[in-house]
Each structure stands twice: as C-alpha cells, then as structure tokens.
C-alpha cells in the first residue's frame, strides 16, 4: 500500500488560505486552485484600472515579478490581481469560484514585493504596501467565511486590521511610495491606498489581465 507523501514544512498545504512572497514563495507552496497576485503600487492597481475601463493589460507591460508569478502559477490555477482597492471584490470572486466548484477551494495570496536586483525576477524582498494589500485580501476572505488561514496569512490579515486607519500614511511613507512621489506620482500612491474603492477583478487569460 502506497502512502501519500508527507507535506513539506513550508508548503502551507494543510491550510485553505496561504500567503507567500514572490515567485520563489509561490513555488514553495502546495499547488493552489486560485493564485492572487498583490502588487499594490504597480501592477495590481494598473490591472484594476484597465479592468474598470473594460480593457486588457498584457503581462509584458507589468512588473516582471508579476509575469514570473504567473509563470510559476501554471496553466491550471486561476490567477487574479488584487490590491487594497479591490480586496473585497477579489474575496467575493474566490467565494464564487468555491461555490461553483462545490468544494473547498485553496487560495495562495502572493505578495509581489520589491526586486532585489533588476535581472532577478524571482528574488524579492518584502514591501510594506504589498504586506498590507495581501492582509486586506485575507481579511476580506475571512469576513466571507473563508478563514482556514495559515499563520503567515493570519498575521498579514491582523496586521491590516490593526493598521487599516493608517494605510494611506504607511503607503506614502514607504520606500516605494516615496520613490513614486519623487517621480511626481503622489496622487497614484494616494489612489492605490483607498480600500475597496473598486468592484472589478482582473483575471489572467492568454497572457493578459482582463475583467473577470
């Protein structure tokens, strides 16, 4: 009789809602039915803006980390783009998918983070804005009853809940936010900090994000 292989310590396979950082983090996780990419101050918010306009945005126009996450996710996973602006909408889309499947649907929340080096899309370090965005999605899932979360996901969710009132300040004070402000993009940072201001969900299909 052949037994099932034991779970790896860091694959979070015993939990429905998982959280990791970047492509390498996703590769460490057990395969998930839904992969939610969180890149608050760049790709996620741009994908949401395009989806709100009924348009598609191609992966090659987005941060290379997001493209690498999509590659690691593989063809079988549903890949959604989430930020602070559409956390609730993404959680509702996950719940709808679970209802459609009539069974527990596993979800990997992947915070994009910041590139360690321009030529290393699989190596990232944590970013404040993506920690908050990932936490917002996990918190929204919990509010809908999808709350069997890994410790990593639970910490992010509670961090978001505790700091929700300071999100705008934290984004503008973060390294990424300050860099964008120096480029004259302060308004874009402020817009990305508005929690649940959008009801659209970008989904990856044929190399681009489009409205779900």
UniProtKB/TrEMBL annotation:
Output the lineage of the source organism.
Bacteria, Bacillati, Actinomycetota, Actinomycetes, Micrococcales
**The organism sits in which domain of life?**
Bacteria
Q: Which SUPFAM superfamilies match?
A: ComB-like
Cite a single GO MF annotation: 2-phosphosulfolactate phosphatase activity
Q: What is the designated name of this protein?
A: Probable 2-phosphosulfolactate phosphatase
Gene3D superfamilies (UniProt xref)? ComB-like (3.90.1560.10)
UniProt xrefs under Pfam families? 2-ph_phosp
